[in-house]
Design goal:
There is one protein chain. The chain has 294 residues and is α+β, with helices and mostly antiparallel strands. It has 3 domains: 104 residues; 31 residues, no CATH class; 138 residues, Up-down Bundle (Butyryl-CoA Dehydrogenase, subunit A, domain 3). It contains 8 helices and 6 strands, in the order βββαββααβααααα. A 4-stranded mixed β-sheet has the order 1-2-4-3, with helices on one face. The protein has a two-stranded antiparallel ribbon with strand order 5-6. It is elongated, with a radius of gyration of 33 Å.
Length: 294
C-alpha cells in the first residue's frame, strides 16, 4: 500500500533526516540508503522494517549531518578501492584501444565518484551512541508511516465499498431482468414449438421436451447471480478485517469476472448483456484498486 513519512531528529552530536516511502508489491522489497560508516545500522534498521511492513516496495533514505549543519562525516581515501578502480579503468582503456574506440581520459573527480573510493566515516571512532540515538528515533518514523498508510487504507476501503455497492445493484438489476426474460423466452418457445408441431407430425414429443429442458438450463443465470451476491458479501467481510487481505481480494476479483463473463454468454437478452458489460467494467475498476491493498 502507498505510504510516506519524513522525520527529523538529533542526538549524539548529529542531526538526521528520514525519508520513508512505499508502493504496493507482491512481496517485500527493501531499498535502504543509509550512511555506511555507522556500524550495524543497516542490519538493525532492516530488521525493524521487516517487522513493521510485511509487503511492498519500500525505500528508506537517511541523511546524517553533524549537529548544526555540516557534512555526514570525514571523507577518507580508500587506497585499496582506489587501486582496484584504477586497475579496472586500465582494463577498460586497453579494451577500448583494441576495439579502435577512443575514450575520454577520466579526471580525478571521475575517479573519486566511483563507489568505495571515498570512505565517509565519523570523526569519532565509536559510532555506537549515534547508532543508538538513530534507532531510538526509528519507531516514531514507523508510527508516522503506519498512520499515513491507515489513512490511505481507509480512503481505499471507501472506494472499494462503493464499487461493491454498484456490483450489488447491478446484480439485483440482472435478477429482475432474468425474471422478465424468462417470461418472454417462454412465450417465444411456445410459439416456436407450435409452429414445429403444425408443420409436421414426425416430431418426437419426448425428444422435444428434452431439448427444451437443456436449452432452459443453458440459459439459466440463477447460479451466476447467486455467486455474485456471495462474492459481494465475502468482499465486504474482508474489508472489515485487520489482517492483510490483498491476495484474498485479488482472488475474489477473478471469481467476480468469471461470473460476469458467464452471465454475458448466457444473456440471450440485450438488457441482460448490457448489465453484464456494466458489471465487467466495475469489476475491472475494482481489480485495479485491489492491487493497492496490502
Amino acid at each position: 500500500m502507498t505510504g510516506f513519512a519524513a522525520r527529523r531528529g538529533t542526538g549524539a552530536g548529529h542531526a538526521w533526516v528520514w525519508d520513508l516511502r512505499s508502493v504496493n508489491g507482491k512481496g517485500l522489497d527493501l531499498r535502504l540508503r543509509l550512511p555506511d560508516w555507522i556500524d550495524g545500522l543497516e542490519l538493525a534498521v532492516r530488521a525493524e522494517l521487516q517487522k513493521a511492513v510485511p509487503r511492498g516496495n519500500v525505500t528508506l533514505t537517511l541523511k546524517v549531518m553533524q549537529d548544526g549543519g555540516g557534512d555526514d562525516g570525514v571523507f577518507r581515501l580508500n587506497r585499496r578501492q582506489l587501486a582496484a578502480a584504477l586497475a579496472a579503468l586500465g582494463e577498460v582503456e586497453a579494451a577500448a584501444v583494441a576495439a579502435g574506440v577512443t575514450l575520454r581520459q577520466p579526471t580525478a573527480t571521475d575517479v573519486l565518484t566511483l563507489r568505495g573510493v571515498l570512505d565517509q566515516s565519523s570523526e569519532t571512532q565509536d559510532t555506537a551512541p549515534l547508532r543508538a540515538a538513530i534507532l531510538a528515533d526509528l519507531p516514531g518514523l514507523l508510527a508516522d508511516f503506519a498512520a499515513m498508510r491507515a489513512t490511505e487504507g481507509a480512503a481505499l476501503a471507501a472506494v472499494l465499498a462503493a464499487q461493491l455497492d454498484r456490483i450489488e445493484a447491478l446484480t439485483a438489476e440482472a435478477q429482475r431482468e432474468a425474471v422478465a426474460r424468462s417470461a418472454v423466452q417462454a412465450d417465444t418457445l411456445r410459439e416456436a414449438v407450435a409452429r414445429v408441431m403444425a408443420a409436421t407430425d414426425a416430431v418426437d414429443a419426448g425428444r422435444l421436451a428434452q431439448e427444451l429442458a437443456m436449452l432452459a438450463v443453458k440459459t439459466d443465470v440463477t447460479e451466476e447471480l447467486d455467486r455474485l451476491s456471495a462474492h459481494v458479501a465475502a468482499a465486504r467481510a474482508h474489508l472489515t478485517e485487520t489482517a492483510p487481505v490483498g491476495r484474498k481480494l485479488d482472488f475474489l476479483m477473478q471469481e467476480f469476472m468469471r461470473e460476469a463473463n458467464t452471465l454475458c454468454s448466457k444473456a440471450q437478452s440485450l438488457a441482460l448483456t448490457r448489465i453484464g458489460l456494466d458489471l465487467k467494467t466495475v469489476i475491472d475498476q475494482m481489480r485495479e484498486q485491489v492491487q493497492n491493498v496490502e
